[in-house]
Amino acid sequence: QVLLLACAEDLECVPGFQQKVFYIEQPFEFTEDQPVLKLEFDDCKGNNKLNFEVSNPDFKVERDGSLVALKNISEAGRALFVHARSEHAEDMAEILIVGANEKHGALKEILKIEGNLGIPRQKRAILATPILIPENQRPPFPRSVGKVISREGTEGAKFRLSGKGVDQDPKGIFRINEISGEVSVTRTLDREAIANYELEVEVTDVSGKTIDGPVRLDISVIDQNDNRPMFKEGPYVGHVMEGSPTGTTVMRMTAFDADDSSTDNALLRYNILKQTPTKPSPNMFYIDPEKGDIVTVVSPVLLDRETMETPKYELVIEAKDMGGLDVGLTGTATATILIDDKNDHPPEFTKKEFQATVKEGVTGVIVNLTVGDRDDPATGAWRAVYTIINGNPGQSFEIHTNPQTNEGMLSVVKPLDYEISAFHTLLIKVENEDPLIPDIAYGPSSTATVQITVEDVNEGPVFHPNPMTVTKQENIPIGSVVLTVNATDPDTLQHQTIRYSVYKDPAGWLEINPTNGTIGTTAILDRESPYVQNNIYTALFLAIDSGNPPATGTGTLHITLEDVNDNVPSLYPTLAKVCDDAKDLRIVVLGASDKDLHPNTDPFKFELSKQSGPEKLWRITKLNDTHAQVVLLQNLKKANYNIPISVTDSGKPPLTNNTELKLQVCSCKKSKMDCSATDALHISMTLILLSLFSLFCKSFP
């Protein structure tokens, strides 16, 4: 079968515009009262109470359907929409306006999308002309919006409509009278939700079998101006440098309109409704009505941040659709414009000369230098940088900026000496962190003088050198001279006397002559004392002047003590235990230590005192310079034995320590050692020798 898209004149009457889409070429100018084209509307019932509305208020439609301009218009946009309403029908027509070079392509596109606008004709069985429906229509519903016609009158044939909006989500928006082919809409449409519906219509027999089609039926939702412009990208903050030339672009405001961008419904124009504050001019800025660019319109002289009431301006910006016409919908937003500071004001000292007084020997801030600067305190154009340019050869002074107040904090960093100089004069300059603009320079007010007076204080005497060091041998005789200290009074102009005293002497070994500072010993110096650390004994002494009140100086004395061999070596351990049936007769390893220093310590010499009796019971063997081993020569009975041992160091002269190693011979059973007391036979070899010697002496008086 052949599908037909035909003109209304070949068919029965279809209510509405007989041609719904028009193409016209953009003229140089639409002339007032000159007809543009003629529209044909027929409600098939006499067009009673017919009324036309045009989307662009600069046009109107006469009673006979002629579209005319109400004034000379050079720009009408890309499209016009004409809404017609009579007592029995309403419809929408679209007039597309294109340039001459767009004519061929635009017409081709229109014919492709819309099908047949009444120009070419072909005989088809189903006529399904595109339907245009305005959005936001008011009840009652359902409302007839168009009609599908079949040229073949097959008995029992029915129309069937399908597609998105019918039997696909969103379902039930459109329906068709299966007998008459009348298409109806059942609810209000929203173009911003769905702008186009592509449906299919076919003819079926009584059994539901398709006998013609399907044929595409396009339904387009005609935009109404139902969305206000919206500013979505806020907050809007712009910056402009003070003194900027007239016409400097500050920022761009862009609004969004959800309506059809190809119509005047989304054609936006911008305007400034309000400026706060209104000084120095109520019109500081201008906004490009089409682009939304905000620019300065005042002279650079008025754009002076330091003379403004506030460096922040707020503009209420309005965006209006319909090309800015009174009938357009509006949306507003606030634009904040900040006038940025540039360094066009140098800092200036509040006075030419500052005074400061400081005591000698004291460090810290002595005076705060104040400056004024008219630039923005939040910028480097305001923040001050101070420099001492003269009067500070010894680098005794430093100056730093207080970040809160911008003051210059002048400090003494090296103690001043009244006796050297009682007065100081500094020359200080101040600049900004940021450089000044080219036509501004630092003047005389950006330098200042600081007069500093040093006050004399009673300073404590000073030991020379400090600390003092001396080397002495330990055990020198009591009363020996260690050192004579030397302290001087820095207050040379006061002619004071100095006396000395002991401040800290942890071991109580020293004394000092209060007049001449001679230090002597009051006890034996002992290198092995716990008060000596790393062979050094430390004591503190005071030098006190005769001022009122007196001032004190402290001197430190380090005495390095040389070692002498004054400590006998000690032996460890002094107790050993062994089983009476032990197989290993190496009973103990002995070690020796000495508090003295090398060479008065090891190597040590280990010896046994002479053993009595027919048999020797033990021997001692040297293992190394500091250790020896005691070995039993036979198993002994359970008893306590004292083994006399001597250990001698390597000093000159050497020192010997005679000591006894207590040996307990115990009984051992099942890994348990029993060393309890034994009978009278358990005597020491030493006592045996002494007793025999005593008896021998009594036998020979």
Write the layout of secondary structure elements.
Layout: E1 16-17, E2 21-25, E3 35-38, E4 41-42, E5 51-54, E6 59-61, E7 66-69, E8 79-85, E9 90-98, H1 103-114, E10 126-127, E11 131-134, E12 143-147, E13 149-150, E14 158-163, E15 174-176, E16 182-185, E17 196-204, E18 210-222, E19 236-241, E20 249-252, E21 269-276, E22 285-287, E23 293-296, E24 312-320, E25 330-340, E26 348-349, E27 353-359, E28 364-369, E29 371-372, E30 384-390, E31 397-401, E32 408-412, E33 423-432, E34 447-455, E35 462-463, E36 468-473, E37 481-484, E38 487-488, E39 498-504, E40 510-512, E41 518-521, E42 536-545, E43 552-562, E44 570-572, E45 575-579, E46 586-593, E47 605-608, E48 618-622, E49 627-632, E50 639-648, E51 656-669, E52 672-674, H2 685-699
Parallel strand pairs: 2-9, 11-18, 19-25, 27-34, 36-43, 45-51
Antiparallel strand pairs: 1-4, 3-7, 5-8, 6-7, 8-9, 10-13, 12-16, 14-17, 15-16, 17-18, 20-23, 21-24, 22-23, 24-25, 26-29, 28-32, 30-33, 31-32, 33-34, 35-38, 37-41, 39-42, 40-41, 42-43, 44-46, 46-49, 47-50, 48-49, 50-51, 51-52
List key phrases describing it.
calcium; 2 helices; Immunoglobulin-like; 4% helix; elongated; cell membrane; 52 strands; mainly beta; cadherin binding; disordered N terminus; GPI-anchor; 4-stranded mixed beta sheet; glycoprotein; 701 residues; 5-stranded mixed beta sheet; disordered C terminus
Describe this structure in words.
- The protein has 701 residues and is mainly β.
- The chain folds into 6 domains: 16-97, Sandwich (Immunoglobulin-like); 126-222, Cadherins (Immunoglobulin-like); 230-340, Cadherins (Immunoglobulin-like); 348-455, Cadherins (Immunoglobulin-like); 462-562, Cadherins (Immunoglobulin-like), CATH 2.60.40; 570-669, Immunoglobulin-like (Sandwich), CATH 2.60.40.60.
- The protein has 2 helices and 52 strands.
- The strands form 16 sheets. Strands 45, 47, 50, 51 and 52 form a 5-stranded mixed β-sheet that branches. Strands 2-9-8-5 form a 4-stranded mixed β-sheet, covered by helices on one side.
- The protein is elongated.
- The model is unreliable at 1-11, 102-124 and 678-701 (pLDDT under 50).
